[in-house]
Amino acid sequence: MTRRISIAVIAAIAVALAGCSTFGIDPEQVLSDTAMTTAIKSRLAKDERLSTLTDIRVSTTDDMVTVSGTVADETERQRIAEIARQIAGDNKFVDALRVVGSPSAAPRNPAGQKQ
Length: 115
Description:
Layout: H1 2-20, H2 27-46, E1 56-61, E2 64-71, H3 74-88, E3 92-99
Parallel strand pairs: 2-3
Antiparallel strand pairs: 1-2
Helix pairs in contact: 2-3
């Protein structure tokens, strides 16, 4: 039963991705972006200091990685950004993390400067 469901899910994804090219969406880019997001999320989950964080979002669109959410302190923000940058490599990176109690913490552009 589980195998049938898995095959059905894979088939549905394949059909959806095949349809992407019809609408001008590159299915290879979608898979690449998804793989990047998954790799970053996985690495964050494996980090014992960060594994319990629940308000962190990672998204990748057209090779631009954005990490957002709220963290307890600057050390957490820097660690998350460091991990994401390592995995993102040459891709653009946007650090949109905010430190709790720091309303002036503005998102950072790909050069790491406040916007």
